[in-house]
Every structure is written in structure tokens, then in C-alpha cells.
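Take a record:
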Amino acid sequence: MCRMLIVTLATLLAVPTPARADEAIVLSDGSTVTGKLLHYYDGVLTVRVAGGQRVRLPAHKVKRVRFTLPAPRAAFSTPRKAFKRLRAAALKGDLSGYIDAYASTYQMLLSHQISIASPKKFRAQLKKQWGAAQLEVVGAKIKGATAQLTVRRRSGERSAKGELHFVRENSEWKMVLPL
């Protein structure tokens, strides 16, 4: 359980996130190390403590990691607002904003795709895909921590409807990549 939590935290920390307070890492002997979790690899957590020093902690000695999540942002308070933010980021070529609008599970995948395609080419592709059509949200269904928006896409005389799926993370709605 502890290892899975640490791996999940390390994955989440690999993508840009708003600033937050330091994590408190409780060790198996009851002592606590406070600092910023920088990295987890091969069973070792790397933590930056006060003064900028780095401490390496073997995962088997870590009992739990306590952290404070950042406050939810109003721009992601509904699936419609999250979609609007995603589209605005795509049209501006704002890759950070575009990635931030997706669920954390998909942020690493998008970052990797951008690095493979090159940021310049990815921006151009986003602007072309999102700018060529008129998009209108025509329906929304929210069920617990998941939501589905029905979007009508118009391009010239063509029109089609499709669904976009969202999940709630830290009280923010984030888009899930279509499968």
C-alpha cells in the first residue's frame, strides 16, 4: 500500500502543479522528515529538506507521506468550465494549460507525445484541430466524480456530436482522453 502511494505521488509530482506546502514523511520508527518530495526511483525517495539539502529515504522505511493538496481552481469547477479552459489553451498553443486540463493519469502521456512531436508541431496541430471547427456543448451528465459532455462539432456544412468524459480530481474537473 505504501509503495503504491509513493509511486502515485511520484507520478503526480512529475507534472507541473501549483505550489503547495511541504510533505511530511513519517518513517517506520515514528520520526518525521519534512520537505519537498522530488523523486521516487528504485525504492528510494529523494526529498529536499530545509536549507536545500537532499535526503534519500529507502521506501521500506517510509510508513506514510502526508501532504496538503492545493486549493481547487474556479476554472475547473464544472465540466463546462474545464472544457472551455482546455479549448482556450489549445487555441493559444498553451501546452502547460492544455496538459493541466487533463486528468493526472493522462498528463504524463501528453507530455511524452509533445516531446516526441516537438512542442512547435504539437502547438500547430492543436490550433488546426481546435480552430477549424465550431464547438458547442449541447448536454451534460454528472454522476458522482464522473461527467460526460455532449459536444456538437460544426465544420462547414458538416455537423457531428460526440462525448467528452471528465473526472473530478481534488474538486476540479479534468478531461479524460477518449479511448
About this structure: Strands lie at 23-27, 32-41, 44-48, 54-58, 62-66, 134-143, 146-155, 158-169, 172-176. The first strand starts at residue 23 and ends at 27. The two ends are 28 Å apart (CA to CA).
